[in-house]
């Protein structure tokens, strides 16, 4: 609404200089409308309304008050000198009388147009005021602009009215004073009064005519729009009918084609169709895919089974190697055990023999002890006899010296025996230390080394023990031999003592000193013999303890070896069980593999047979399809052409539908606009009726005035004829003179 008001106000402001300019009468006489086209003057609004232009001197002013003051001061005094632009075609000062009659219709038209323009401006200003008063939603920046435009219109209206009145006064006085100078002042005064009254009447009729012109222009625009819309609607209807006919034709053609397609489909159904061939091909492809999938699956399973068989074979080889190693170890351990058992049996036999030998030695020692006791008793008897036979001893002093030498030899031998005993004790201690070290090393080696080394070390220990036992037995035998020799020596001593006793008994006069010495020597020998017996007992007990310890160690080692043998046998059993299970699994998988290969072969054979059958069917179908394909290609080409035409027609139908919808929308909009314009027309008609009523009154008055004007015109024509005749007479007179 504001844009419309702005456009209208700018049109009025742009048209004001045209109204006030001398060319306005020409434009109205040429038949152009009062308001020019808004599109041509829309861009000049801002430049046109910057100032107010004087229509006479064409100077600009910033306000209408300055323009009106300038007009009053500068141009009001010169009204008699300014020619009326509305009477450009009037008779000049020295024009002939024939041209004066042609100026009155143009003047009447100009006066009537000016009156209509003034009335339209007045009505338009009132409308603008009412619109501005009713426009509650006008922005704050628009109100000063509209008020300024209203002030401009009011100033222009006042200027136009004053100018029209003054122009009518001045312009009608001046030409009529010149033209009717010869007829008198009364005619000019009456003409001026008539023109004033005519101007007032025309100003009353201008508003109605301006509004009517606007309504007619709007009606023309609406009628043009309605005409264009109806033309478009008619053209759309025509196109729609044409398209309907084409669609009906295409439908009929499509039905024909569908019937032909049905006939061809029936014919093709009787023949092996491409669909059957395609189905068979798809089935063949599907069967081949299934076969490929089955073969791939079987290959995967076979590879998996082969891998599992390979792994099982590797495990079986490893287990077999373990079994071999364990069996070899078992055999070695068995051999070692056998050797150990043999050694143990030998040791047992040796120990039993040695025990028997020791028992025999014990018996011999006991016998020797008994003999020693008897010897002691005998020595006691000998002492008694020595006492008795001291004399005999004295006599046998020489023999005693020899006996002393023998005793020294025996003492040397005893010392040697003692040294050998010490050496034997040192050897036994070293042997015990070695035995302890060897036992510790055996234990450490039993943890670190393998079972073979332990068994070999045990064997070596047993051999060493046997050798040491043999040494001990040999030593015992040597000691027994020495004891026998000692016993023999004792026997010899006893015999000697007997002999001495005999000699002493024979020679009682022997020296007592020698007997005492012999007693002391005998006592020493008895002490040494006692020491030897005690040491021998101790050595015997140590040997028995060592033998018992060796037997315990042998039993413990035997238990350990038996436990190891049990563990090895248990491991062997578990490995044999695992090996049997692996062999069973391998056999089962091999059987399954053979079964799978048989199944694969059966599946392949069946698939190959089925594929061969399908190939035969496909060849038969291809032979039948090759003929049908040509017909189908021809029909498909025809169908493609028809489908292309149908697509084009459908596209055209869619475009026509879109155009029809757009035209329907345009029609709806135009109908809405027409309804609005009809409402406005009804309002304007009501106004126009009121204006026509006032106009009829004015027309009646105008008719009266026109009757007067006709009478005045007749008088003027008469006067002009008289003037013409007088001028002709003057010219003739001048020519004659």
UniProtKB/TrEMBL annotation:
Domain of life per record: Eukaryota
Stretch list, region Disordered: 15-42
InterPro entries the UniProt entry points to: Znf_C2H2_type
Entry keyword set: Coiled coil, Metal-binding, Zinc, Zinc-finger
Domain C2H2-type per the UniProt entry, residue ranges: 52-80
Molecular function as annotated in GO: zinc ion binding
Chain segments annotated as coiled-coil in the UniProt record: 205-260, 365-475, 508-736
Listed name of the protein: C2H2-type domain-containing protein
Organism, scientific name: Haemonchus placei (Barber's pole worm)
Source lineage: Eukaryota, Metazoa, Ecdysozoa, Nematoda, Chromadorea
